[in-house]
Amino acid sequence: MRLAVEHTTHYQYDAPVHYALQQVRLTPKDRPGQQLVGTWAVEVEGGERQLHYTDHHGNGVDLIAVGGGSRELVIRCRGEVDLVTFDGVIGAHRGAMPLWTFLRPTPLTRAGRGVRALTAAIGRDFASDIERAHALSALILGRLAYRTGLTDAETTAEQALAGEGGVCQDHTHIFIAAMRHLGHPARYVSGYLMMNDRTQQDATHAWAEAHFDHIGWIGFDVSNGHSPDQRYIRVATGLDYRDAAPVRGMRYGAAQENLVVQLQVQQ
């Protein structure tokens, strides 16, 4: 399947921004089963694209600087990707980060009382660890309904689990914390998902991958209750959201921002 993506991230500031620096992870990865068609375009208005580099997780990163009293920043990405489904299986571990790194908890994915109780509720009566992981995914969605506006980028797995709802980022952090607690390396994935019921979207998507002996990495989209297929484009991976955030940075001054995202993913 070939998917076309058009993605605009528009920041508007209520006061001039004298300096800001943004790390942009919006270029999909080339890998078996996922290949860019031609050039992936990244265009910037209101800032300067200073360089492109590959980070320690193998993610493509554009460094964008904003200065000179800008009041808005627009980042436009577009391109096409060919995809082949492997039923969620990514395969053997690759890259500079050793596999044991993905067992390490982070502030957003630390397993506290709530996550440990969740793993205890699952039990061990399963034919395989993969079957248990799918059961864990279903349990998380059952405990934490998909609801926007209740969490933010700094909400931890424990905080989300104790709340009344969350989004894909929260589901992913809880799953990662639980899988690491069970002894499986796990990582965060940000990317694009082609929806079956609409073309226009207002955010990118997030899901998890867990590592299993003799098979490798397998994806789990907790929010949708299945493993990623050929509708999913992997863009960035990391230990948690902070490593794989589509746009993350800093700025000087007291300006408040308004963010509008326009996204189309279609065949």
From TrEMBL:
Residues annotated as domain Transglutaminase-like: 160-224
Natural source organism: Sphingopyxis macrogoltabida
Stated name of the protein: Transglutaminase
SMART domains cross-referenced by the UniProt entry: TGc
InterPro entries registered for this protein in UniProt: Bac_transglu_N, Papain-like_cys_pep_sf, Transglutaminase-like
